[in-house]
Amino acid sequence: MAKYLISFPSAAMVVPDDEWEAVVRDSHAVIDEAKAAGVYVFAGGIDESVPPARVSADGAVAAGGYPWAPQLNGGFAVLELPSRDAAVAWAARIAKACRCDQELRVFHFDPQS
Asked: Other CB atoms closer than 10 Å to residue 47's CB: what's the count?
């Protein structure tokens, strides 16, 4: 089984104000279904009110992320699934709940992680 990252950037979530309550309800329901199915690893959203920090090997801390990289924001779920087809099916469920397309990526298998 592989772990899949299902995610979206904040800007992708264009939802009318009167639909937010339904989006929250529907997205929580999909995550509850993933937990019940035993495929849930972790999910959440980037707290955009807390600025990123870049930490070097010597422990020095610099404000901000990599200046050349796109800003990381939005929401994500990590699910452990038996196939890419299963990952696409879960991504579609999350897309429906969140009212926006989801990006799907697979984590490289590392037997020590």
From this structure: 8
